[in-house]
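Q: Entry one of two.
A:
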Amino acid sequence: MASLNKVFLMGNLTRPPELRYTPSGTAVADLRLAVNRNYTTQSGEKREETCFLTVVVWGKQAESCGEYLDKGSPIMVEGRLQTRDWETKDGQKRNVVEVVAERVQFMGRSKSAAGAQGAPEAVEASAAEGEDEVPF
């Protein structure tokens, strides 16, 4: 049976990236992304709903997000959905659905380039080979 787990999202960060490192030294960043959906009801009323998602970014791509993104930054994410289950200290079972980023594209000016003339409008951090060549 065929299966596919791929998502593309475009939205804005609701807070600055939370960058941390695993005990082995690998960078990981949590991004909180707001994605809006505009629609019209059957009665003709225009509405907007917002979906808030957690995006997990790994490696050098995570470090780039921590350095160049801030609250409000517009990004596009290509990735996959992942569920995690855990148990709290008091024994309650919890689960969460997250997006694991394979690629994050910066859609606006970065926080460090905001004052620079000619700063790129879109820059990309990729988890693919050659990520050392991210054009910053």
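Q: Entry two of two.
A:
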Amino acid sequence: MAMDDALEIVSFTAGGYRFAVEARQVDHQFASAPDAVVAVETLLGLPPASAVRRCWLGVGQHGVEVDGPVDLRSLPVSAIHPLPELVAVRLQLNGVRALAFEAESPLLLVDLRALLA
């Protein structure tokens, strides 16, 4: 990979943490709550959300409710790191695949399609 390679991501917040999913996993964003929706906190194993600002992502046949803002952007591949082994074995969040840092802030990369399967 070239040094300027980037991964297109969709970022959001859940449980006070910043998460991102590879953009190709998100088919669309709903303007309002779809009929069938699952909260991302349920998928990740976090306590239920109490935030007022909610957004809905279309992931396959599912509507996934997340905290906004929802951003589509590029993340340099050089900012993405595998989970340290100690963190990986102790992490109690479902679906976390990697860790990235943006301006010294952690960003957890998740696989929503695997969680919904």
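A: Comment on entry two: The helical segments are 40-44, 85-90, 112-116. Residues 85-90 form the longest helix (6 residues).
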